[in-house]
Design brief:
The protein has 409 residues and is α+β, with helices and mostly antiparallel strands. The chain is 46% helix and 6% strand. It has a 4-stranded antiparallel beta sheet. A two-stranded antiparallel sheet has the order 5-6. It has a two-stranded antiparallel ribbon with strand order 7-8.
């Protein structure tokens, strides 16, 4: 075995060892919340999303189920793959299998240039609103399927690992035919915004979850371990460049080198809906991998400090990355609701999740803010059961120690 092979093998062993050892901390309990209350709260938040009066999960017949973005009246790979990740983490096999079957039946391309990819948006009857993909959906599908393989095995009706490998193999086989590209940009080893000629030119900071790539390296069993570890390293390097050094804010899309993207002579510089996910994603990598903890801790405290300076109950959900308020042109509306700056519970949730990697005293105030926040209709009539609801549930999973690496039994 030559030196390069030895080093590569050692890298894999170290990465796998870290991946296996890291488990999420129950920060709620660590900060003084009674364990029984934490369990009840998580159960209630899960119930709200999947079964309550404002649920976003719907079952069809004996074997199918979907999650709907109610405010946009559609089904998205984002929400479907989130639902699968939540289900496997909380050991809800029936929900997982129903969502996967719906995804495969209506959303996944079985033939043609897009084979293996998923149509990112469908009507609730399964009719496709678009044929193209959003790369984050595939990211979550692959990882949740690998976890399902580890948790339940591959002989209970769905070969989960085979399905994950199929998505990966189909992606790596893409050569640009009919404009369809790999999920991961070959030059930069970074995830694309969309795997096509247009969206493949830039990326979305909230799609970068290096901890997922380490899971792929350990469990995909497709001979690409070293490549996935390189992807994880490149994603961390990209995140360092993508966030503003003073505020900790990031735009919702940008260039692969982390610089601001210019589109139609307009600089894309606004921290908004997609951007909210970055603090939670970085916290996930901090908990699962622990290989970039110094930067991650500094980042977590920096972004919490920014929002704390705006008032823990007053900060809004869209800012330019320099901390200024966006103009009306820079703001994005939520569904059919008018453009407006709000104090959204989805952002409250992800900033609370960031407390996992913080050491300053403010972190408890962010956790308390999530615990006490009520997910209810706002004064302007705005209510987002889907995006806010899912991010809220993810944050409670994070902070209660229920968002973990699922290793093989």
């Amino acid at each position: 075995m030559n030196t390069r092979k030895i080093l590569s093998t050692l890298l894999l062993v170290v990465a796998f060892g870290v991946c296996h050892a890291k488990k999420s901390t129950n920060l709620f309990v660590k900060l003084g919340y009674p364990p029984d209350e934490v369990s009840r709260k998580l159960d209630q938040v899960f119930y709200d999303v999947f079964y309550g009066p404002n649920k976003v999960y719907f079952e069809i017949g004996d074997s199918l189920g979907y999650i709907s973005d109610i405010k946009n009246a559609d089904v998205r790979t984002e929400g479907m793959s989130y639902g699968m990740m939540i289900a496997v983490e909380l050991n809800k096999k029936d929900i997982f299998d129903r969502i996967w079957r719906w995804s495969k039946k209506y959303m996944q391309h079985q033939t043609g240039p897009r084979k293996g990819y998923f149509a990112w948006s469908c009507k609730v009857d399964g009719t496709r609103n678009a044929e193209g993909s959003a790369s984050d959906g595939e990211l979550y599908y692959i990882t949740s399927l690998l976890f399902a393989s580890n948790r339940w095995g591959d002989h209970t009706g769905i070969d989960y690992k085979k399905e994950a490998q199929n998505i990966l193999n189909c992606s790596f086989e893409k050569k640009g035919n009919s404009g369809v590209m790999p999920l991961i940009d070959r030059k930069t080893k970074l995830i694309t915004f969309t795997p096509d000629k247009f969206g493949g030119r830039f990326t979305d900071p909230s799609y970068h979850i290096p901890a997922f790539y380490e899971v792929w390296a350990k469990y995909a069993d497709d001979g690409r371990q070293s490549y996935y570890l390189q992807m994880a390293s490149k994603a961390r390097e990209y995140l360092h460049k993508s966030v503003n050094q003073i505020t900790g804010l990031n735009p919702d899309i940008n260039n692969y080198d982390g610089s601001l993207l210019e589109f139609r002579n307009h600089k894309m510089q606004t921290f908004r809906y997609d951007s909210w996910r970055v603090p939670m994603n970085v916290a996930l990598d901090y908990e699962w991998s622990g290989v970039d903890s110094l930067w991650q801790r500094s980042y977590g405290e920096k972004i919490q400090n920014f929002f704390y300076s705006k008032g823990l109950k007053q900060y809004v959900d869209q800012y330019n990355v320099d901390g200024s308020l966006p103009s009306e042109d820079e703001m994005i509306a939520a569904g059919t609701f008018p453009k407006k700056l709000r104090h959204s519970i989805g952002l409250v949730a992800t900033l609370a999740a960031a407390s996992q990697m913080c050491e300053h005293q403010k972190r408890k105030e962010f956790v308390d803010a999530l615990w006490n926040a009520k997910h209810e209709v706002g004064q302007d009539g705005y209510f987002d059961a889907y995006y806010d609801g899912l991010l809220r549930l993810f944050a409670f999973m994070h902070l209660s120690g229920n968002y973990v690496i699922i290793d093989k039994k």
